[in-house]
Structure formats: structure tokens, C-alpha cells
Amino acid sequence: MSVRILSVGAVALFSAAVFTASPCAARESVSFGGYSAGTIVIKTNERRLYYVTGDGKAIRYPVGVGKAGMAWSGTVSIDGKYISPAWQAPESIRKDYARSPAVIPGGSPSNPMGAAALTLSGGGQYAIHGTNNAGSIGGFVSHGCFRMYNQDIMDLYARVSVGTLVVVLR
What is the CATH classification number for the domain harbouring 149? Predict the structure, then answer.
């Protein structure tokens, strides 16, 4: 009987080690050059957002990015900062959310914006925001927005201001 308990314990320990988030899933300080301090660089294919801190360093965050056909690249800036934002599907994707209310209030568990949002210039369709679906981080999952863990969007929110440059690369 003690051998069976030990075997079950070993399987549980192995499973916990294999199925927990990998260290690369957490935000971390990394070497990063070529951009001015305070710039946000999003590398869509890596599914990573970099906040450049200067001296050849950046904070790297995992993100969810645009699905096939919905990813984009370019240079924009943050034009708004919101804690617990309400959400309304943009007209371009409203049909995908036809069963949802026209506006989902901030703080609602069904609100896809999560804890905070940084809206991006260029028409109001895109944002860097939290999520109520942590399992989507690291995937090609959105209609063009960038999803972050709620604790990460709150960390980034505190570091940036309206006007911060955002460079989105494929």
C-alpha cells in the first residue's frame, strides 16, 4: 500500500511540474536594444510585449495577439488609460458578439477587457488590456488587441502615460 501511495504521489508531483506555467510565461527583465526608454514594442510572432526601461533592458510580458488575418503592425501611441473599463464590441466585429449585451460593464466577469486598458491611437479599435481568460495569453486569440494577465496590465499601466509610443512588429 505504501508503494501505491508513493507512486500516486510521484505522478501528482510530475504532473504539477509539467502542467504549471513555464518561467517564460512570467514578466521578466531582459536585454533589449534599439528603442528609447519608455517605448512599448510588441513582437506579434513572439507573442511578447517589451517595455523598454533603458540601458539595453526591457521588461518582457507574455501577451495574446491577433488571430490569423487580424494581426497588424505599425506605430501608434497610447491615447487613453482606463481602470475596469466597460466594453462594447467595435462595429467591425459586432456580429461575432451578437449574443452579448451592447455594453458590458467594467468589473463584470464577462467583460473581456479585464482590470485595465490602454487604448491605442488610430481609430479607437485596438487596446492593450487585461483579460478574464488567462488561458488566452500566449496565443493568437484576439481581433487585433493585445491581451495581458491582469497583474501585468496593472504593472504596465503604472509605468506608461498617454502619448507613450507603441511599436507593433510582426
Answer: 2.40.440.10
Q: Which tens digits make up the pLDDT trace of 23-35?
A: 346 899 999 999 9
Those residues with Cβ within 8 angstroms of residue 84's Cβ, 6 or more apart along the chain or in another chain: 106, 107, 115, 116
Which candidate, 45, 58, 41, 80, places its Cα nearest to that of 165?
A: 41
What pTM was estimated for this model as a whole? Answer: 0.82
Residue 116, domain member (yes or no): yes
Active site residues per annotation: 129, 145
Contact 137, 145 (CB under 8 A): no
